[in-house]
Amino acid sequence: MVTEKALDRAAPEGGAMVCSCAERGRPVPVRGRSEAAGRGRNMDFNVSIDEHADAYSIVVVNGEVDLHTAPKVQYAIERGAEGVRVVVVDMAGVAFMDSTALSTLMRAKETLEKGGTSLRLTAPSGAVQRIFDVTGFGDYFEIYPSREDAIAR
Predict the structure, then answer these.
(1) What is the pLDDT, as a whole number, of residue 52?
(2) What is the CATH number of the domain that holds 25?
(3) Residue 10 has pLDDT above 50, yes or no
(4) How far, in Å, CA of 55 to CA of 81, rounded?
(5) E-strand spans in 7-85?
(6) Which of 25, 82, 101, 143 is the most buried (most CB within 10 A)?
(7) What pTM value is reported for the model?
C-alpha cells in the first residue's frame, strides 16, 4: 500500500499528492495551506480520493483551488481515473477557485474523455457556480447537484 509519506517523496515539485489506496473506500488526504493571491489570508486545502466501486471514483476538494493547489487537484483526478469509467469531483467545499483551477478542470475533462472516462462535477459551492455562470463553462462541464446523481447517470 502506498502511504502519504511515500507520495510526498514521489510527488513532482509543488507538494504532496494523493493516491488511490489499495483498499477501496479509504481516502488518502493531502493537506496544505493555500495563500489566496492578493487577499493575504490562508485557508486549509485538502483533496482526497474516495473510491466506492470499480466503475467510478470520487475526488473531494475542500478549500481554495488556485495556482498553488490546482496541480494537486489535477493529480488526484488523474489518479482517480485509473481503471474507472467515471470520475466525480465533489466541489461543495471549494470556497474559491481562480482561472488556473478552471483551466485544470478543462484539461482534466479533455484528457479523461480521450481515454473514455467521464468527468462529472457535483455540488459546486456558490462561489464556484458563479464562476461557471460568468465564464459560460457551466454548459461545458457535466454538473450534478449531488454525488448520487452524478453516479446514477
Answers:
(1) 62
(2) 3.30.750.24
(3) no
(4) 10
(5) 30-35, 42-51, 56-65
(6) 101
(7) 0.75
